[in-house]
Structures are given as C-alpha cells and as structure tokens.
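Moderator note: this is an archived Q&A kept for reference. The question asked for a predicted structure of one protein chain; the sequence and the answer are reproduced below.
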Amino acid sequence: MKNKTFSKGWFKNLFYVFIKELLWSNMPVVAIFIWGIVSVYLFPDEWWIASLIGSIVIVVLFLVLTYLSERKKS
C-alpha cells in the first residue's frame, strides 16, 4: 500500500502550476519592460509614444488571451 500524499508526481504538478502561474502573471510586465528598451533603441526621438502604444497593445493582448483561456476552461 504505497498511497503517498506527497508523491513525486504531486511535487511535479505543483512545480508546473507554480511556474505557469508565475510566468503568466508576470509576462506582461516583462514584455512591457523589453518593449520599452527596444523602443528607446529603435526610436530615440519618439520613444515615449512607441512605448505607450506598445504597452497598450500588450495589456489588451494579455486581457484578451486571459479571457479566452478562462472561457476555454469552463
């Protein structure tokens, strides 16, 4: 009778869920930060408008993907 509560599979699933949630919740912040750096490099004169538009696009895309992901679950 090897019914372990904390089995190897349990820890593996816990790790995958933790990493998935951590990446999913922080991905927009990382993408906005990277886009800000890229916009400063590519558009040195108008970096602020490129950064603003890119940030808005990233936030909207994140919200749409979150909505679609939640809708698929239910």
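Archived answer notes: The chain has two helices and no strands.
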